[in-house]
Write a structure and sequence with these properties.
By secondary structure, the protein is α/β, with parallel strands linked by helices. Helices cover about 40% and strands about 15% of the residues. The chain has helices at about 40-50, 60-75, 80, 100-105, 105-120, 160-170, 185-200, 230-245, 260-265, 280-295, 310-315, 320-325, 355-365, 390-405, 410-415, 425-445, and strands at about 5-10, 25-30, 30-35, 35-40, 90-95, 120-130, 150-155, 175-180, 205-210, 250-255, 300, 385, 450. The chain has a five-stranded parallel sheet, with helices on both faces. A four-stranded parallel sheet has the order 2-1-5-6. Helix 7 (about 185-200) links the parallel strand 8 and strand 9. The longest helix has 21 residues, at about 425-445. It is globular, with a radius of gyration of 22 Å. It starts with a strand and ends with a strand.
């Protein structure tokens, strides 16, 4: 087990001494390429926004720089070798920012958010940017032109974000879609869906910001890469707020996610805490809104589907024919390349948690599912619960059986994955109901599915 500190640098001449404890392993994250432009996708994101007439604020840029530190730490520090319990890491960040006092004031909130999101122990510190980067964002040469964008919407390439985009476009809204280009299958889905939507809604001047952020595998010495990526939604939302900081009059950042996944109640006792992802949990989004308010950015993150199941999102989509045509291009699978060893291409496995919820939703909303799954027929054979193909199905069966025997548990179980401090009694009732209805959709999918250990 090692404690880690990620120290941001801006250029080869940035040599400010940062104290490092004797039991800390220091990694220096160089944020500037070629001595002038920002690296790791940040510079390209700035250029792409400027091209469409958006000029983010310095604090907005700070937020994306902070997200780079978080994403680098989360994906390049192995949980297996760098923690005492193969999960909880101790990570400190030292981030160069434009407004030291403002960022220092939100330190405790940030640490609480990150601890909740990833299950690690984060310490976040800030330092002033070097003098030559005090003003790092480009300013418009003339009076900014009026921009058409009515809101921003996260666009991951998944089914929920596709429905979110269609619902806006079908109403004649003009979103700026926000994507993080990660691994190839997801990136390909984003591109295919965006191109198809552009063709379908050619009269609407919507655009997309696509941030490609990556780090070398050897960034942290003697550590393997980490695949759990629990912090990924911090990067997604940071990209959105970064863009939104350049829109006058404030903005709404839509985070399209069905209520069952947003709550992500642990299905069984083995999936507690951060072992169940919290990327769009209501408490986490509430913390985001507090953060951007304290930073002085006029933006608000909201999940318009937080009391809808995925099946209800499919059923109620504003343009069903377009959705039905584009569903096969969307990507929901947690690991779409894992079938390669069986000779399959990039496709949905059909048995991970996101795939099961997707299959249940399409069955509920459309009946026929046009998606190709590696395991096409879940009921075709007994699923082995000692193998990946049977584990999530069995966990769902346990949760479904538990709730069928004690329906009132729903009101208690929705608190398992995180606090609901800002939810009224009526809102908590609605969340309990979406949890129940979401499990009902999966129960219909698994009605004839058999699971047992080999």
């Amino acid at each position: 087990m090692r404690r880690h500190v990620i120290i941001g640098r801006m250029g080869p001449d940035d040599k400010l001494a940062i104290p490092v404890a004797g039991d800390e392993t220091a990694t220096y994250l160089q944020l500037v390429a070629s001595n002038t432009s920002f690296d790791h996708g940040i510079g390209h994101a700035l250029d792409d926004l400027n091209t469409i007439g958006i000029f983010p604020s310095e604090v907005g840029l700070d937020l994306l720089v902070l997200a780079a530190h978080i994403h680098a730490a989360d994906t390049r520090i192995s949980r297996v070798t760098e923690s005492q319990d193969t999960w909880t890491r101790e990570i400190r960040l030292v981030v160069p920012v434009s407004d030291l006092a403002r960022w220092t004031s939100v330190t405790q909130l940030l640490q609480r958010m990150l601890n909740f999101l990833t299950g690690d122990r984060w310490t976040v510190g800030f330092r002033a940017r070097p003098k030559r980067f005090v003003s790092a964002v480009r300013k418009p040469l003339a009076k900014p032109k009026s921009l058409p964008y009515t809101e921003l919407s996260l666009f991951s390439g998944g089914l929920d974000s596709l429905i979110g985009a269609i619902d806006l476009l079908a109403q004649g809204r003009v979103p700026l879609l926000i994507s993080h280009a990660g691994e190839g299958a997801t990136s390909d889905a984003q591109n295919a869906l965006f191109d198809a939507l552009k063709k379908q809604y050619s009269s609407i001047p919507f655009e997309r910001l696509r941030v490609w952020m990556s780090f070398p595998k050897g960034l942290v010495a003697d550590s393997a890469v980490e695949e759990s990526t629990r912090s990924r939604s911090f990067l997604f939302l940071a990209c959105g707020v970064f863009a939104g900081s350049g829109l006058s009059g404030g903005c709404t950042l839509r985070v399209p996610e069905n209520g069952l996944i947003a709550l992500n109640v642990p299905l069984d006792p083995l999936r507690l805490g951060s072992l169940s992802t919290r990327t769009t949990h209501p408490f986490y989004l509430s913390c985001w809104n507090k953060l951007v308010h304290l930073l002085g950015i006029s933006a608000k993150a909201e999940n318009p589907y937080h009391v809808k199941t995925k099946g209800e999102m499919v059923t109620e989509c504003a343009n069903p024919p377009v959705l039905a045509k584009l569903i096969p291009k969307s990507m929901s699978c947690s690991s779409p390349t894992k079938g390669r060893w069986q000779g399959h291409g990039i496709e949905h496995c059909g048995y991970c948690l996101p795939c099961l919820i997707r299959r249940a939703a399409i069955r509920h909303g459309l009946g026929k599912d046009p998606t190709t799954y590696t395991v096409a027929n879940l009921a075709g054979h007994v699923l082995d619960t000692r193998q990946a193909e049977g584990q999530q199905a069995r966990s769902f069966q346990v949760a479904i059986d538990r709730l069928s025997q004690r329906p009132g548990l729903a009101r208690l179980l929705i608190h398992k994955s995180g606090p609901l401090l800002d939810a009224t009694a009526a809102e908590q009732t609605a969340l309990a109901e979406v949890y129940r209805r979401g499990l009902d959709e999966v129960a219909a999918l698994l009605a004839n599915v058999r699971t047992r250990p080999s």
